[in-house]
User: What shape does this take?
Amino acid sequence: MGDSKDVMNSYVTRDLRKMFSPGEGWNIERQPECGGASFAYVVSRKRFGKTARYPVEVSMEAAVSAAKAEQLQQQYEGANAAGVLLEPLTLFVPTGADVSNVPADVMINYLKVLKVEDGQVIWWKKVLPAE
Assistant: This one.
């Protein structure tokens, strides 16, 4: 039986496949080395001799701390300094998470299976209205 991290990775992978279709040539790698930096995922595709790489990180906290935001920025800049050109960083967080410390150029994606309620991250399944 898997742990909660495995379950979260399956939800993140599912959302990434919706954003970056493997049928269109996108490759999703977990924890690849990327110019000395390591991201939770890197989504890449090579077209016309150019490789597009989108680094992806995951934060399962109710609020992204300033230290975590700075660490993400340092990893991103380190990979670029090493010659690995990256597209904007994507960060997955629970729905309702405080992302005020995250730099404006980071794309935020909310995981719909998790929700922040009363400062706690909880599993959440959206209830559909009765028809």
